[in-house]
Design goal:
The protein is mostly beta strands and 119 residues long. The chain contains 1 helix and 7 strands. It has one domain (2-93).
């Protein structure tokens, strides 16, 4: 299972649904969200939401998941962590093009076919 922890601040509408979010699998394995938890705190007049979402790959192969999160108006992601088994990894927020280039360099994945066979 993969757990993603995303910190958001400030938010204009705390009741905005996550229905527009998109979870996709690069290699076609069946991925699903198995839990969703939101904690709210106020800090200096700003609402800070801590969102913890857990996803499962119920397929037979390893998979790369992509999660597109549609943030409410006025919200901003301020942090990201992902857990693989028992270890947490901190994510680095960066400009979109820089992130895409780094990702392609590290994995060979991106807008083109992967460098290795998927069969």
């Amino acid at each position: 299972m993969i757990t993603v922890l995303l910190l958001l601040a400030p938010v204009a509408s705390p009741s905005a649904p996550a229905a527009a979010d998109a979870l996709t699998a690069t290699l076609g394995q069946p991925l699903k969200e198995v839990s969703h938890r939101v904690d709210l705190r106020l800090k200096n007049g700003v609402a800070i939401f801590r969102v913890r979402r857990t996803f499962a790959n119920t397929g037979k192969r390893h998979e790369e998941a992509s999660l597109a999160i549609n943030l409410p108006f006025g919200a901003a992601a301020t942090g990201l962590r992902i857990r693989g088994k028992r270890r947490w990894f901190n994510g680095e927020l960066m400009e979109r093009n820089k992130a895409a280039a780094l990702y392609r360099k590290l994995t060979g994945l991106g807008p083109h076919e992967p460098r290795w066979s998927t069969h």
